[in-house]
Write a structure and sequence with these properties.
- By secondary structure, the chain is α+β, with helices and mostly antiparallel strands.
- The protein has one domain: 2-Layer Sandwich (Alpha-Beta Plaits).
- The protein is built from three helices and four strands, in the order E-H-H-E-E-H-E.
- It has a four-stranded antiparallel beta sheet with strand order 2-3-1-4.
- Strand 2 and strand 3 form a beta hairpin.
- The longest helix has 10 residues.
Length: about 90
């Protein structure tokens, strides 16, 4: 399993428009074979922060998506995004 998680920042006052610009891409990703979840969302506390979470079944699915993703052209800064690998998932409780 591939998990990509973290955040980036955009200019103050432009965050919500940036998140909205990713909506079509998020919708396409969620239909992609191997996508378990993908979300790009506005942070509820920081007006410049955009949160990113992706979960893919495997490396091959994620790489196939990367070839066709074509996200919007938006300038993001201060990116803190990491790729994590896991061999299992379980209920938290």
């Amino acid at each position: 399993m591939i998990i990509i998680a973290g955040y980036s920042r955009t200019q103050s006052g432009k965050r919500d428009a940036a998140v909205a610009a990713f909506a079509a891409m998020v919708g396409r990703a969620r239909q992609q074979e191997g996508c378990l979840d993908l979300s790009i969302s506005a942070d509820p506390v920081d007006p410049e922060r955009i949160n990113l979470f992706e979960c893919w079944r495997d490396q091959e699915s994620w790489q196939a998506w990367r070839k066709i993703a074509k996200g919007p052209r938006i300038t993001l800064r201060d990116s803190h995004v990491k790729l994590y690998r896991s061999d299992k998932a379980e209920r938290p409780v």
